[in-house]
Write a structure and sequence with these properties.
With 282 residues, this protein is of the alpha/beta class. It has twelve helices and eight strands. Helix content is 49%, strand content 15%. An eight-stranded parallel barrel has the order 1-2-3-4-5-6-7-8, surrounded by nine helices. Helix 2 links the parallel strand 1 and strand 2. Bound molecules: glyceraldehyde-3-phosphate and zinc ion. This is Class II fructose-bisphosphate aldolase family protein.
């Protein structure tokens, strides 16, 4: 059990018809909590650090990435490290040196031809550096400043176009727009399972579901059964962490030692991770 390559985890999961849960890391406590939840569930996981999280840390990617890698190395679970939602090629080029075995290049908001050209350049670089590259076709909305909703006409991923896109770019995995949306705080998304099945038949690489915090457990199980291989979860962890911190500070308004509320936040994230691992990776 240790730090492993994302490709290895996703291939093992696909062979066992399981998905690999991929959880967003914002601070060291998140990485620790995700590893604890993975061990409790007995499920391998991906720690992913988004470009937005890198910006939050003042554009410093290495300190959090190296800390997350050390958490993975000392864990009882198999854990991979992924750089998520990268729009900046300069940041992508730092991925390998910072310890990431995979990255998601995010050009899904662009028109098809522009997405294709940018993703091809990213894939060529990534493969030269041994980095497994995920891209997006169709548009999973809901990120800050997002131009379109996941439910707007024309944003779902078309299977024929997806097959061409993968062949023309050589990407290793594809994020698809099938009805989920980023940053949902209620689990009310309804996925297009028939579309997932058609994408699975048409596309020869693993399919990735983004915006999974808003997807109910049964919908997640059906999505995995239909062919989703990696399930990205972020907002659910933030909600659990923040609620625990809020409750702790409300109960103990005299708190001055941050460890008192960070510990409760870390426990809440670990429990959320354990539950979601059982749903998508069990
Ligand atoms: O790439 C990260 C995920 O798509 C997270 O989405 O915050 O809505 O769970 P979420
Ligand atoms: Zn996402």
């Amino acid at each position: 059990m240790s730090l492993v390559h994302t490709r290895e985890l996703v291939e093992q999961g696909a062979a066992a018809r399981r998905a690999v849960p991929a959880f967003n890391v914002i601070t060291l406590e998140y990485a620790e909590a995700i590893a604890d939840g993975a061990v409790a569930a007995g499920v391998p996981v991906i720690l992913q650090i988004s470009e937005n999280a890198v910006r939050f840390h003042g554009d410093r990617v290495e300190p959090l990435a190296r800390a997350a890698a050390e958490v993975a190395r000392s864990s009882g679970a198999d854990i991979a490290l992924h750089l998520d939602h990268v729009t900046d090629l300069e940041l992508l080029r730092r991925a390998s040196d910072a310890g990431f075995s995979s990255a998601m290049f995010d050009a899904g908001r662009l028109p098809y031809a522009d997405n294709l050209a940018a993703t091809l350049a990213a894939a060529n670089w990534a493969h030269g550096a041994g980095v497994w590259l995920e891209a997006e076709l169709g548009y999973v909305g809901g990120k800050p400043g997002a131009p379109a909703s996941a439910h707007a006409p024309g944003v779902r991923t078309d299977p024929d176009e997806a097959a061409r896109f993968v062949a023309d770019t050589g990407v290793d995995a594809l994020a698809v727009a099938v009805g989920s949306s980023h940053a949902m705080t209620e689990r009310s998304a309804a996925l297009d399972h028939a579309l997932i099945g058609r994408l699975r038949d048409a596309v020869p690489v693993p399919l990735v579901l983004h915006g999974s915090s808003g997807v109910p457990d049964d919908e997640l199980r059906r999505a995995v059964a239909a062919g989703i291989a990696k399930v990205n979860i972020g907002t659910a962890l933030g909600a659990a962490f923040t609620q625990a911190v809020r409750d702790t500070l409300a109960a103990r308004p005299d708190t001055v030692d941050p460890r008192h509320f960070l510990e409760r936040g870390r426990e809440a994230v670990a429990e959320t991770v354990r539950q979601l691992c059982a749903v998508v990776g069990g």
